[in-house]
Design goal:
This protein has 345 residues and is an alpha/beta fold. The longest helix has 14 residues. It has eleven helices and 18 strands. 47% of the residues are buried. Helix 4 packs across helix 5, helix 4 crosses helix 10 and helix 7 runs parallel beside helix 8. Strands 3, 5, 6, 9, 10, 17 and 18 form a seven-stranded mixed β-sheet that branches. Strands 13-12-11-14-15-16 form a six-stranded parallel β-sheet, sandwiched between helices. A three-stranded antiparallel β-sheet has the order 2-1-4, with no helix packed on it.
Length: 345
């Protein structure tokens, strides 16, 4: 079958032929109908330190945000059957560690990530994954919407962690797809004002279409000063940091109001130095970090929000490509000239 991924170390992206994956006793084989590029996939496009650390071997198929139909099940699979529509949870738990056994499988001590630590990802017509991470979804959710449930769940996890209250002023730093999802969720959670920040006008334009109240290009405007202006000097009740920029980490703490809440989601490439005494302690900030989706509370909530059209996840889709157009798709996303980019295998 045709696939997108890597056959060797080094920058770039490849389209190549690979055998269809074999199904293990606890696995399901899925016919992929739609799959999306994530920022994580760009690590392999550039072949950086992350790619070096998470390299199960070659050839390897990239991709981990997807939706499709189950076409084969392993002999020990009990909860899924051929014909079920599924989306993929990317955090593969060991099911035996302390965290798995206390309701925190999403941060399993021995976790592997589908499409990152596995040879077969979703940028192909077929993929294979453990039964526990194949989440059955209703037919009312399209394949394209289903492919976005994984990143949407990250945004939902962050917004739930932020505990937004009616009337709160919320700042979302970063207007990538997860940021755009978080902006929608902040609005329906009762925020009186949602402010977004980014460095790219294209992504800020997508944020405007989402319906935020104020967009800030941080290359032109100091976001901390502007947020203070918008709030009569008070600052934001909630800041959700999704850009992964070191400067944004500091700005998130600075723009938060006294006793405000800051949730960190974006992953920085280098450590960030912060002044815990003045930026956190004396402000009595409530600071937390989240990763992935709570398994499976976040999934149930995500499915209900999308199925009932409370949130329109399709608003972030800007481009669709065939597998043959991998190079064009990756170049577009790497330049920041796209929202969510889909492959239709």
């Amino acid at each position: 079958m045709k696939a997108i991924g890597k056959t060797s170390k080094g920058p770039g992206i490849e389209v190549f032929d690979i055998e269809e994956p074999k199904v293990g006793p606890e696995d399901v084989l899925v016919r992929v109908k739609a799959t999306a590029i994530c920022g994580t996939d760009l690590h392999y496009y550039h072949w950086d330190g992350y790619a070096e650390r998470h390299n199960p071997g070659f050839p390897r198929v990239l991709g981990h945000e997807f939706c499709g139909d189950v076409v084969e099940v392993g002999e020990n699979v009990r909860t899924l059957k051929v014909g079920d529509k599924v989306a993929g949870e990317t955090h593969i738990p060991c099911k035996t560690c302390y965290l798995c056994n206390t309701g925190r499988m999403h941060i399993c001590k021995n976790m592997k990530i589908f499409g990152v630590d596995t040879l077969y990802g979703s940028f192909a017509p077929y993929t294979v994954l453990p039964e526990i991470t194949a989440v059955k979804i209703p037919n009312e959710i399209s394949y394209e919407e289903g492919a976005l449930l994984e990143p949407f769940g990250v945004a939902l996890h962050a917004v739930c962690e932020a505990n937004i209250k009616p009337g709160d002023v919320v700042v979302i730093t970063g207007c990538g797809p997860i940021g755009l999802f978080a902006q929608q969720l902040a609005k329906i959670s009762g925020a009186s004002m949602v402010v977004s920040t980014d460095t790219r006008e294209y992504r800020l334009s997508l944020s405007k279409k989402i319906g935020v109240d104020e967009v800030i290009n941080v290359l032109n405007v100091d976001p901390v000063s502007r947020v203070r202006e918008l709030t009569d000097g008070k600052g934001a009740d909630v800041v959700i940091e999704l850009s992964g920029a070191n400067v944004a980490v500091k700005q998130a703490l600075d723009m938060a109001a006294l006793n405000g809440k800051v949730v960190f989601v974006g992953t920085t490439q280098k450590p960030t130095e912060i002044d815990t005494t003045n930026q956190i302690l004396y402000k009595e900030l409530r600071v937390s970090g989240i990763t992935g989706r709570i398994m499976f509370d976040t999934w149930y909530r995500s499915i209900m929000l999308v199925r009932n059209r409370t949130v329109d996840v399709s608003k972030v889709i800007t481009h669709k490509f065939s597998l043959d157009d991998a190079q064009k798709a990756f170049e577009l996303l790497d330049k920041g000239e796209a929202g969510k980019v889909l492959f239709i295998p």
